[in-house]
User: Fold this.
Amino acid sequence: MILVGISFFVIYFILTAYQKVGKSVPPQIKISDGENPLTTPKDFESAVKTFLEKTKWQS
Assistant:
C-alpha cells in the first residue's frame, strides 16, 4: 500500500513538471507562403473554394 502512495506522488510530480515545461515553450506553427490558415468558411461557395485550394483539385 505504501508503494502505491509513493507511485502516486512520483507520477503526480512528474506530470506537474511536464505540464510546466510544456506551458513555458510556445508551439511554433508556420504557415507556408500561399497556404490559407485553417478558418471556418462563411458560406457554401467559400467552403467549396477552400476545399479545392487545399486539395489542389485539378478541373
Summary: The radius of gyration is 23 Å.
